[in-house]
Amino acid sequence: MLFIPLQAAAPQAGSALPTILMFGAIILVMWLFMIRPQRKQQKELNEFRNSLRKGDKVVTVGGIYGEVVEVSEKTCLIKVDGDVKLRVDKQGLVKDYSETAQK
What we know:
Strand content: 25-35%
Oligomer: single chain
Low-confidence stretches: none
Order of helices and strands: HHEEEEEH
Number of strands: 5
């Protein structure tokens, strides 16, 4: 004969506070280790794009290295090699390598 204790099958009538605290702790950890650093990185990237000046050496998302020749509100004209110039969206610029190019 199969015997199932009634206490194990019945739902527990306890407090929901531990469950709520656990979910709150999980959300806090996700915010500290995932959301907050991502927002900081995005803010730094936006500051970089807004502070672009003529002569800055930059890298595009596609890996093209160039020097900024002209800056407008949404685009930049970068000199790639010789007389080759590309107009790229500012959102496509990800890195300034002016300091590393001089070393």
